[in-house]
Design goal:
The chain is an alpha/beta fold. It is built from 19 helices and 24 strands. The structure holds fructose -6-phosphate (F6R).
């Protein structure tokens, strides 16, 4: 989704803005722009397409300015072109925006303003400008516009005369930051853009206006809508250095993130006895008695499906899962004592946030399993279990998925009173070993990828806890390799999809000792229809090898409940190598965004 970076300070503004925007490229975008204050005039550079297009213009012009805002746009209102790219400006103000103004058309109809673009953002610019003409006060003008618009948005405004940066938001991510030594102010839609630039971060609450003014004690000032100073923001000391945002020796962030998984699991295993780590698990386990409504989107929902299986199988707790985009528009049966559990890497997914609000309004306790501390879901839920995944940059989620499932497993262990027990510790240690073993066999997976990447389509199958992995494997393959892939429960093939099989269709079947005979029979049925069979198996069993065209034997190292996160790593690498052979943009696949902040 849209990315925002703003800068005001003594140095060249274009450098940190462009670097920040480059870091946000992973979120997905279709055009980019920057507005700089040059000799007390706002000067705009905008270009459709990748950020390098904008970069080439700036390299030629070499504009000098110490005050500016930049934006990567993911189109919602109006086509993808230079004009609709942000920022939008006039002689007074320049504005960037992330989100959607839901009542933009109604507002636009009532405004006497010379609109240049088709965007909803320009409606906000028009509102601010008109209010400023009336009030002659920038803060009041921004509040007046902000109160007129509906929907979830973050806005950053630069005002040339006051030489100040203003930022305000409603249910959309926004972070402000200062570098105390260098005397610099930053604002962004994502703290990741500011790593290495800031020493202190500020996360404002909804409706609080943040004003960055280099003259004033090097602090952002925060105001409520009555223009009273406000303390409704959280602060965080930033110690991370720039190399956190680096992919090291890996060709892609996705591959780096796949390889981080064993260490991240070991890190959790070492924290099992930490009181602050245990706390949210025990608090949720003590308070949650009713039905678990487990909600998420895409990969996060697949992790949620595994959690549902854990809770029902190992804890006899009723749990339902649903796509956030479906749950929010039906009339879910919610009863007193039920809880909402929201699974999300970013903590900003619009549909998931709406479901959390719905549950809250219906009196349910709401909990999240989330990767981004301070994100909207994190701030909105009663309790949060934080992933220990670090920033996930590859658009295709890998390490965050694994961590979500591990956290779901730990919650299940907590329900069973086994959180810190040897069984739990061993399971995590073994999962880490088993995943390391798969990573050490990357060449074998690469070889299979090279044999199958040109086939017509891919059907992933699994049973029980491997069924959500079949869904996840298919999702990963289609999103990064742009090939048709579907996930099915193995037993469902004969109810329709088996008609697809011929010698050009691949079945990637995950078969392990759980429900072994039944899953094997399903693979045999496909083989009998000439399907190309890739088996991700266990225990080197001859009968599996015989029916497969390509066989990969997983050593689970004694892992029991967490088997699905182990087999999934084979699928992550398989998708990665198929995508590489296809030559796609693996870290930033077309049409996708890392954080989906629109419905
Ligand atoms: C796929 C993927 C998406 C996300 C989904 C939800 O690799 O990353 O399917 O899982 O968009 O995003 P979050 O977890 O941020 O709510």
């Amino acid at each position: 989704m849209c990315g925002i970076v703003g800068y005001i300070g003594p140095s060249d503004a274009a450098d940190p803005i462009m670097e920040g925007l480059a870091r946000l490229e992973y979120r997905g975008y279709d055009s980019a722009g920057i507005c700089l204050n040059i000799d007390e005039k706002l000067v705009l550079f905008k270009k459709e397409g990748k950020l390098v297009n904008l970069g080439s213009i700036l390299n030629e012009v070499k504009p000098k300015s110490s005050f500016g805002i930049g934006h990567t746009r993911w189109a919602t209102h109006g086509q993808v072109n230079d004009t609709n790219a942000h920022p939008h400006m006039n002689e007074e103000f320049s504005i960037v925006h992330n989100g959607i103004i839901e009542n933009a058309s109604e507002l636009k109809a009532g405004l006497d303003y010379n609109f240049l673009s088709e965007t909803d953002t320009e409606v906000f610019l028009a509102l601010v400008t008109q209010a400023y003409k009336r009030e002659a006060d920038v803060e009041k003008a921004i509040f007046s516009a902000f109160h007129a618009v509906e929907g979830n948005s973050a806005f950053v405004v630069m005002h040339v005369k006051t030489r100040k940066l203003y930022a305000i938001k409603h249910s959309a991510p926004l972070v402000c930051g200062v570098n105390e030594t260098a005397g610099e102010f930053f604002v962004s839609s994502d703290p990741y853009a500011l790593i290495g630039y800031t020493s202190k971060l500020y996360f404002p609450e909804d409706g609080i206006l943040c004003v960055g003014n280099p003259g004033a004690n090097l602090e952002f000032k925060f105001f409520d809508s009555e223009m009273n100073p406000s303390s409704k923001y959280k602060t965080q000391i930033e110690t991370r250095s720039k190399d956190v945002a680096d992919k090291g020796n890996f060709e892609h962030f996705m591959l780096k993130e796949i390889f981080e998984q064993p260490q991240l699991i070991s890190k959790i295993e070492k924290r099992l006895q930490d009181e602050d780590f245990k706390l949210p698990f025990s608090q949720i386990a003590t308070n949650a008695h009713g039905v678990f409504n487990i909600i998420g989107c895409g990969t996060a929902l697949h992790a949620g499906m595994l959690m549902r299986n854990f809770f029902e199988t190992y804890n006899q707790k009723r749990a339902i899962t649903d796509f956030a985009s479906e749950f929010r528009y039906k009339t879910p049966l919610l009863q007193k004592g039920d809880v909402g559990l929201f699974i999300t890497q970013s903590g900003e997914t619009a549909d998931t946030l709406a479901c959390q609000q719905h549950c809250k309004e219906n009196g349910l306790k709401t909990y999240s399993i989330v990767n981004v501390e301070g994100s909207t879901i994190y701030r909105s839920c009663d309790k949060n279990i934080l992933l220990e995944a670090g920033a996930e940059i590859g658009v295709a989620s890998t390490k965050a998925f694994t961590q979500m499932v591990v956290m779901g497993y730990l919650l299940s262990q907590s329900f069973a009173g086994k959180f810190g027990e040897t069984e739990t510790k061993n399971e995590l240690q073994n999962a880490s070993k088993a995943i390391s073993d798969i990573l050490s066999r990357e060449e074998e997976i690469k070889k299979i990828a090279s044999e199958i990447y040109n086939y017509k389509g891919f059907i992933f199958t699994g049973r029980g806890n491997q069924f959500p992995i079949a869904l996840e494997g298919a999702l990963k393959l289609k999103e990064i390799a742009y090939v048709h892939a579907e996930g099915y429960a193995s037993g469902e093939l004969k109810h329709g999809p088996i008609a697809l099989f011929d010698e050009k269709m691949v079945n990637i079947a995950i078969i392990n000792s759980d429900l072994y005979k039944k899953t094997l029979s399903n693979a045999q049925e496909v083989k009998a229809r000439k399907g190309v069979m890739v088996i991700i198996g266990e225990n080197h069993l001859e009968e599996m090898k015989e029916i497969s065209d390509f066989y990969f034997d997983v050593n689970y190292f004694g892992v029991e409940k967490l088997k699905p996160i182990v087999s999934n790593v084979v699928l992550q690498l398989l998708s990665y190598h198929i995508a590489k052979l296809k030559g796609t943009d693996i870290d930033k696949p077309r049409n996708l965004a890392k954080s989906v902040t629109v419905e």
